[in-house]
Amino acid sequence: MARRRMIYEGKAKILYEGPEPGTLIQFFKDDTTAGNGEKHELIEGKGVLNNRLSEHFMTGLASIGVPTHFIKRLNMREQLVRAVEMIPLEVVVRNVAAGSMSKRLGIEEGTQLPRPIIEFYLKNDELNDPIVSEEHIIAFGWATQQDLDDMVSLGLRVNDFMSGMMMGVGIKLVDFKIEIGRVFEGDFQRLIVADEISPDSCRLWDVESGQKLDKDVFRRGLGDLSEAYTEVAKRLGVMPRQNGSSSGPKLVH
């Protein structure tokens, strides 16, 4: 069967025309980048893991009433999603100081924050996705005040759900990024979680050892990224643990 028309290709995913109006097929690539694409490698199987993990998180969010674009997984690398009008912002929720926050503010990495802190970044590769204030967002028309209120609410709800899920398997949710889109229902619009939620977009640390189980493994050259993502999948039950098998991990269908 011929591939459907490609709509968009990003660093880690490709969007194709969906089978029905208002739908898209989201394909997860093995490409892995850091530093706004300055570091790039193909890591076999990463796209499969991210597809399954994003399905797991999106399905869980839907079960507690958080709206998402996810409809269903189609195969090991593709999922069917709703087409949305993307807001050109990344919503970052931080529970622990790490990464750019530590560098920018001189806060020691690993410092527990007094409460979750939400930051907004403009999605613009040429500008390296700069941090922006709510004043910038409203002044330049990237979102309205109501949109901002709704994005903060969505970010905090996702944080509550993800923090609990991860802590239950011995993983600390340090921070994460979500992207949000608009869907229109008659004369009304609402905001929903779109794109993906995976170790590509989260910082995940083992509670006991502090071992990194996210894309920082790749960014900082700390080991095998595939092993780190596989460990997350196993702990969450997305992938079974192999007992005495040398045939390698197999994903659940």
UniProtKB/TrEMBL annotation:
One Pfam family cited in the UniProt record for this chain: SAICAR_synt
Keyword S-adenosyl-L-methionine: no
Reactions this protein catalyses: 5-amino-1-(5-phospho-D-ribosyl)imidazole-4-carboxylate + L-aspartate + ATP = (2S)-2-[5-amino-1-(5-phospho-beta-D-ribosyl)imidazole-4-carboxamido]succinate + ADP + phosphate + 2 H(+)
GO cellular component annotations of the record: cytosol
GO molecular function: ATP binding; phosphoribosylaminoimidazolesuccinocarboxamide synthase activity
Keyword Ligase assigned: yes
Listed transmembrane segments: none
Top-level EC class: ligase
UniProt keyword annotations, A-Z: ATP-binding, Ligase, Nucleotide-binding, Purine biosynthesis
The SAICAR synthetase/ADE2 N-terminal domain, residue ranges: 7-235
Family of the protein in this entry: Belongs to the SAICAR synthetase family.
PANTHER family per UniProt: MULTIFUNCTIONAL PROTEIN ADE2, SI:DKEY-6E2.2
Protein name: Phosphoribosylaminoimidazole-succinocarboxamide synthase
Annotated source species: Pontivivens nitratireducens
